[in-house]
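seq as requested:
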Amino acid sequence: MEELNGTIDPSCLQEPPLAADVINQLDVFGIILYSVLTVMSVVSLVLYLEECVYVYRKVPSPKKTTIIWVNGAAPVIASMSCLGMWIPRATMFTDMTSNSYFAIVVYKFLILILQELGGDEAVLKNSGNKTLNISTGPCCCCCPCLPRVRVTRRIIFLLKLGSLQYALLKPILSIFSIILWANGNFDLSDLEITGAAIWINPFIGVLTIISLWPVAIMFMNMCTSLRSQRIIPKYAMYQLVLVLSQLQSAIISILSLDGTIACSPPFSSIARGSMLSQQLMIVEMFIVTLVTRLLYRRTYEPIDLNPCDADNGQITKMIPISVSTEENTA
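struct tokens:
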């Protein structure tokens, strides 16, 4: 635009538009698009609430609480994305809410794996002298020389702590970022060394990588044992939400910052990139919600820990116990 007439549309340099401005500029296609995306986010939330009722009634404690937390990732992100789509100036708040919730989900997924194994005490009781392979992503996938570690109470505590730090620090840093933003000191487009964003965001990235490592360790060592509990597709959905909510959003943000995503009044480049990210997220999280519903809304069979079935350093072999299937008719 600058090359065509030597000027830049003033709206391309302004803050994101108000919700009323977004509604007023919608054409027929825009109205249909926004309506369909809103319905998707509402359906995701309704399906999640219905699933919460089912899990609360059919799954014993404390696993049901963990499942409810883990299942909420996609519906919460979809709901926050819908709010950010309709109210562009609230995008920072909705994104930080989604990311803070997912930080808790990372820790809860680790707890879910342990609960599927019967809990900490059951893992310690049946581990014997078995060891864990810690040469996994995202930290040490290229370090096969790392020694295996014995399964002890201390190791389990450190794994939990590695994921818990992100669940605690991410919301704190989000609140701190919002405070700085309100004071005019936090701007995602400010990449100067004196800007707050250039320091806070990489630090959050490091915390994210550290928190994902314990989950990857537990999954890589237990995926065979927990195959009957559908842990592999569950982990795949968890990873998919991670990639879509973190990596995809970061890529779109970078493209909007360098102007690859063009300004489209009343949206600036950054606001338009954020809008596109929100719309994509709603569709993607809607699909993830449907898939996770199939994985988690089911009868959970108890498992027996058989310490005699150790295979190549695996802690244990999980053997489902036949139980009554009367819950399947509920």
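The longest helix spans residues 28-58.
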